[in-house]
């Protein structure tokens, strides 16, 4: 039996809400699992995976999910409040990423190891640099008068698109990190595959959210 348009719409919203709820759980569960594995404080290196997981799995995911109409934890708040919380979470994510990058760089220096010679290291460095630029670019949304020749709608569109690229870079960096010797010797078998699914799931949810926002904005212009 064919579904009506209203039923399909309701089913689609329910699926998006379920996926968003799963993304919230993964965003918190993944860094929690990393903390158990790394045992922060047991070594200088142990802080690196935890800080990066907090930055790109928890803080950045929650910063983007804030604008989800189905799964935002601040749905009843005004957009102004959501923007401020988004900024705070993104800034915390950047600080965690910078600290994580500094720790692994110093740890390699202490152990006489080469810097940024793996795909994980290069992607991680690119991600942190890109995230820094993305946060700086967000200032123009807070103060759009600084960009006199750009409309606010266009600034929002470009910020969301570039933010998605940065988020995907962060997820790619996490996945490459799970291919490292430390992670593969600690997590094996099915658990490794489940861990790899975590950033994949959240990236799909965020991509869907951004693409829907883009389509809604495009329809509203016609």
TrEMBL record:
<dbReference type="GO" id="GO:0005783">
    <property type="term" value="C:endoplasmic reticulum"/>
</dbReference>
<keyword id="KW-1133">Transmembrane helix</keyword>
<dbReference type="GO" id="GO:0046872">
    <property type="term" value="F:metal ion binding"/>
</dbReference>
<feature type="transmembrane region" description="Helical">
    <location>
        <begin position="44"/>
        <end position="67"/>
    </location>
</feature>
<keyword id="KW-0249">Electron transport</keyword>
<dbReference type="GO" id="GO:0140575">
    <property type="term" value="F:transmembrane monodehydroascorbate reductase activity"/>
</dbReference>
<dbReference type="InterPro" id="IPR006593">
    <property type="entry name" value="Cyt_b561/ferric_Rdtase_TM"/>
</dbReference>
<feature type="transmembrane region" description="Helical">
    <location>
        <begin position="118"/>
        <end position="143"/>
    </location>
</feature>
<dbReference type="InterPro" id="IPR045150">
    <property type="entry name" value="CYB561D1/2"/>
</dbReference>
<feature type="transmembrane region" description="Helical">
    <location>
        <begin position="87"/>
        <end position="106"/>
    </location>
</feature>
<dbReference type="Pfam" id="PF03188">
    <property type="entry name" value="Cytochrom_B561"/>
</dbReference>
<keyword id="KW-0479">Metal-binding</keyword>
<keyword id="KW-0472">Membrane</keyword>
<keyword id="KW-0812">Transmembrane</keyword>
<dbReference type="GO" id="GO:0016020">
    <property type="term" value="C:membrane"/>
</dbReference>
<keyword id="KW-0349">Heme</keyword>
<feature type="transmembrane region" description="Helical">
    <location>
        <begin position="164"/>
        <end position="184"/>
    </location>
</feature>
<feature type="domain" description="Cytochrome b561">
    <location>
        <begin position="12"/>
        <end position="217"/>
    </location>
</feature>
<keyword id="KW-0408">Iron</keyword>
<feature type="transmembrane region" description="Helical">
    <location>
        <begin position="190"/>
        <end position="210"/>
    </location>
</feature>
<keyword id="KW-0813">Transport</keyword>
<dbReference type="GO" id="GO:0140571">
    <property type="term" value="F:transmembrane ascorbate ferrireductase activity"/>
</dbReference>
<feature type="transmembrane region" description="Helical">
    <location>
        <begin position="17"/>
        <end position="38"/>
    </location>
</feature>
<protein>
    <recommendedName>
        <fullName>ascorbate ferrireductase (transmembrane)</fullName>
        <ecNumber>7.2.1.3</ecNumber>
    </recommendedName>
</protein>
